[in-house]
Amino acid sequence: MNMMYSLTEHNSVQILSLNSLRDEWQNRQILKELQPKIDSGASTFVVDLAKLNLMNSSGLNFLLSLFSKTKKQGGEIILANASRRVTQILEMTKLSSVFTLRPSVENAVDCFAMELVA
C-alpha cells in the first residue's frame, strides 16, 4: 500500500485520496504512478482532500498538473472534502474558478454520474 495516497474506482471514476501534498518529489512520484492509468483512459478523478489541512505551492502545482493531464485525455477532476483553509487557499489563488469543489466524495461521484445522464 502506498503511504502517500490511495486510489480506488467507483463507476469508472478514479477516487484519489491524498495524505499530503507538501513534498514536491512525492507529488511528482504520485503523478508518475497515475500517468499509465490516465493514458489507458481513466481520466475522470475525484481528489479527496479530507486528510489535508494545509496546502502549499507544491500541492497547488500537483492539482494543476493532474488537471492538465486529465483534460488532455478528455477527462476532468473534482476536488472533494477540502478543508476551510484549503478552500481559502484555492480562493486566494483564484483556482476555485478552475476546480469544481464538492463537500464529499459521494457528492463528487454523483456529479459525474449526472453528467453522463445529461
Short description:
The chain has helices spanning 24-39, 57-72, 84-92, 105-117; strands at residues 5-10, 13-18, 44-48, 76-80, 100-102. By secondary structure, it is α/β, with parallel strands linked by helices.
Q: How would the blueprint of this fold be written?
A:
Layout: E1 5-10, E2 13-18, H1 24-39, E3 44-48, H2 57-72, E4 76-80, H3 84-92, E5 100-102, H4 105-117
Parallel strand pairs: 2-3, 3-4, 4-5
Antiparallel strand pairs: 1-2
Helix pairs in contact: 1-2
Question: Your description of this structure?
Answer:
- Helix 1 runs parallel beside helix 2 (about 55-70).
- The protein has a five-stranded mixed beta sheet, with helices on both faces.
- Helices cover about 45% and strands about 20% of the residues.
- The model has no long low-confidence stretch (mean pLDDT about 95).
- It has one domain (about 5-115): Transcription Regulator spoIIAA (2-Layer Sandwich).
- The chain is α/β, with parallel strands linked by helices and about 120 residues long.
- Strand 1 and strand 2 (about 15-20) form a beta hairpin.
- It has helices at about 25-40, 55-70, 85-90, 105-115; strands at about 5-10, 15-20, 45-50, 75-80, 100.
